[in-house]
Amino acid sequence: MRAEAVSRVKLVFSLLDADGNGYLEAEDFDLMSSRVTAAAHGSGAPAKEAMRLAFQRYWTTLKTELDANRDGRVSFDEYVGCVLSPERFDATIGEFAEALSALGDPDGDGRIERALFTDLMLAIGFSPANIDALFNAFGPDKDDRITVPTWSEGIKEYYAPNRAGIPGDHLVAGVPS
Fold first, then answer.
1. More confident residue, 90 or 102
2. In this entry, which stretches build a coiled coil (predicted)?
């Protein structure tokens, strides 16, 4: 497992831990789902519902895989062991990636505009400079858009335990933008 991958998921854990108590709980995912779908300007109810369900599956997978004592919460040590294990988390992150990237394409043209991408990533909690660096790393076209598959694959790659030097590394503090 690469240090870069651990840094990436450490950041996501801190963003998902909405109340800052050091654990992920169902309420954290409900709050994040609400924030992200509220930022999805122009997206229809089916896309928002798919995102809500993807957040719900993300939590359900973690709870099922990791909450051995059934206390309804997951620590960082438990989290990193699951999300960086492709055999345990790839299907869940695939669903999440498809739902989030689809939210960024409300008109269905297969391209995501920088403004909506930024709004969605801000709703998750990433910093503006890092969001901009990530979008640029995805290689926007002349209309300042990226493709839905580019973002979806970038999300999946973010959770790859043996990858470094990927666009998602721009989301981690201290990475030059």
1. 102
2. none
Residue 177 falls within a domain, yes or no?
no
Q: How far apart are CA 95 and CA 106, in angstroms?
A: 17
In a domain, 173, yes or no: no
Report pLDDT digits (tens) over 116-163: 999 999 999 999 999 999 999 999 999 999 999 999 999 999 888 788
Q: Which of 89, 70, 74 is nearest to 13 (CA)?
A: 74
Q: What is the pTM of this model?
A: 0.89
Is 95 within a domain? yes
The residues, any chain, with a CB within 8 Å of residue 40's CB and separated by 6 or more, are 47, 48, 51, 103, 104, 106, 116, 119, 120
Q: Give φ, ψ of 146 to 5 degrees.
A: -120, 165
Q: What is the CATH number of the domain that holds 144?
A: 1.10.238.10
Q: Total domain count for the chain?
A: 1
146 lies in some domain: yes
Cα gap 123→126, rounded to integer Å: 8
Domain that holds residue 44: 3-166
